[in-house]
Design brief:
Strand order of the largest sheet: 2-1-5-4-3
Largest sheet: 5 strands, antiparallel
Shape: extended
Distance between the termini: 95 Å
Oligomer: single chain
Number of helices: 12
Strand content: 15-25%
Order of helices and strands: HEEHHHEEEHEEHHEHHHEEEEHH
């Protein structure tokens, strides 16, 4: 099979940019535009949004995917792809490793971006009528359970557990996905309105003094407003024909004041946890060979070659539990605190276990051969400084 011409290849797959990145950053990139008008109105370029070098998500994911399947590409879409009305771009990246002396290291990452509509069109051409039936829903998920292709466009980029938590739970039980729980012991949470703490007004008598001061201040302000209102009645207002429009516009502007008003929020330290999901690394997983069996197993899952994606086909005839939802958002850990106990005191009383190093590493075997050492810590008598001080004391 011969290669497609460049223009036909770009038009068929909707490629917008091809790039090459190394440790020093985005080294090479080429943007493709269908016409001159699109090139003039392109706005910000790909290089302006992807200037973090090895800290880019597509760079790190491509390197991680290399250790799972060397020949595969990593495909990803933004999390809010389904919420925006603009054209969604799919990013595909592949890591290139350099091997020398039996050791390998990532040298570069190559990739391209293409239109999501082109991927959807290619997917429908491959699957044919199998995914267009009313009783079948076809999803393409990445290795972390996020939706790349969905029957509903607004679900693109969402976590599949939020769309169908029951099937996602079955995928975890059948070892298609593995759940990984991570903890954040330095998180910050918002204090909800009306939340009580362990402090008591009996132990805080100053609260009554503050209330008295607040009452005095509001009373003074109230009398000032009343005095200003009474004084304004002695003056005849100057009415102009344009004044009505002025007050109407003023009232309209007041409607937008609530959008620019600063909302006072209170923060507190807390612990959070979240459940993340990743594909099992087994290339020959027996789950991929299992077929659907009525409503006992109303789905079929297959890996997509040379990628981090899987194809999931669900039978919609079976009942669906809409209340079962899985999420990857962090949640606050609610500890069983005592009546007058804070989170800080709870952590002090309950030491969290930490994994100690497997071995004691106190020195390196090559430390004795290091010759480039400074002498800043050595204590020596500086003869030059002593002689200089004696000369200054003698002749000055």
């Amino acid at each position: 099979m011969g290669l497609l011409p460049r223009n036909e290849f770009k038009q068929r797959f909707g490629i917008t940019v091809a790039f090459l990145a190394t440790h020093s950053g985005l080294t090479r990139w080429q943007e493709f535009h269908s016409n001159m008008a699109e090139e003039l109105g392109a706005g910000e370029t790909f290089s302006e949004h992807n200037n973090k070098a090895i800290d880019e998500v597509w760079y790190k994911r491509a390197v991680d995917q290399h250790f799972i399947r060397e020949e595969s590409f990593v495909y990803s879409v933004p999390f809010d792809a389904g919420e925006t009305g603009a054209e969604t771009m799919v990013t595909a990246s592949h890591a290139i490793f350099h091997t020398e002396g039996g050791k390998s290291a990532p040298a570069a990452v190559v990739g391209f971006q293409f239109q999501h509509t082109a991927l959807l069109k290619l997917f429908r051409n491959i699957t044919g009528n199998g995914c267009t039936m009313d009783d079948k829903d076809c999803y393409v998920l990445d290795n972390n359970g996020f939706i790349i292709i969905s029957p509903s466009r607004h679900e693109t980029g969402m976590f599949f557990g939020e769309v169908n938590g029951a099937i996602m739970h079955r995928l975890v039980e059948e070892n298609v996905f593995k759940k990984v729980t991570v903890y954040d012991y330095q998180a910050v949470c918002f204090v909800p309105d009306g939340e009580n703490n362990c402090s008591s007004k009996f132990f805080s008598p100053i609260i009554h003094v503050l209330r008295l001061f607040k009452w005095l201040l509001t009373t003074v302000l109230w009398y000032i407003v009343q005095y200003t209102y009474v004084a304004a009645e002695f003056f005849e207002p100057l009415i102009d024909e344009n004044m009505t429009d002025y007050f109407i516009n003023l009232n309209k502007n007041n409607e937008y004041v609530k959008y620019v008003t600063l909302q006072r929020t209170k923060l507190k330290s807390c612990d959070m946890q979240r459940d993340l999901y990743t594909l099992y690394n087994e290339k020959d997983n027996v789950v991929y060979n299992m077929t659907a069996h009525g409503c006992e197993r109303p789905f079929v899952v297959l890996p997509i070659p040379a990628s981090n994606l899987i194809l999931l086909v669900i039978d919609q005839i079976c009942p669906r539990d809409a209340t079962h939802i899985l999420t990857v958002n962090p949640i606050d850990i609610n500890y069983q605190l005592d009546a007058n106990q804070t989170l800080q005191c709870y952590k002090r009383d309950h030491e969290f276990t930490r994994i100690r190093p497997t071995s004691c590493i106190s020195k390196h075997v090559n430390e004795s051969f290091i010759e480039l050492c400074g002498s800043a810590s050595s204590i020596l008598v500086n003869i030059f400084v002593i002689v200089l001080n004696l000369l200054l004391c003698t002749f000055l």
